[in-house]
């Protein structure tokens, strides 16, 4: 028995096949699994268009003021082992001397 993916709308595990589509009996959502898999993969790129991945090392390309603090992340600061997340600030990381931060990918370049 093959394992079907959960419903992308309500996360129900009771999905079933109906021809080429998958159907959720709880919320009545129908989707094509081939189309859904290609939509889910959003590519996050740096300021120069290079694709980023979890675990990459990036360099800050602009002085970034830290909200609620007088500290600044200086140009050229290397950030190791980034984690990509959903949202406006799409990079989660730890910066030496500052701590945990969220950065926008438009202000970094891949090292």
TrEMBL record:
Residue intervals of the Protein YjdM N-terminal domain: 3-32
Similarity section: Belongs to the YjdM family.
Domain Protein YjdM C-terminal intervals: 45-111
SUPFAM superfamilies the UniProt entry points to: Prokaryotic SH3-related domain, Zinc beta-ribbon
InterPro entries per UniProt: YjdM, YjdM_C, YjdM_N
Gene3D superfamilies according to UniProt: 2.20.25.10, SH3 Domains (2.30.30.40)
Name of this protein: Zinc ribbon domain-containing protein YjdM
Native source species: Marinospirillum alkalitolerans
Pfam families recorded: YjdM, Zn_Ribbon_YjdM
The organism's place on the tree of life at top rank: Bacteria
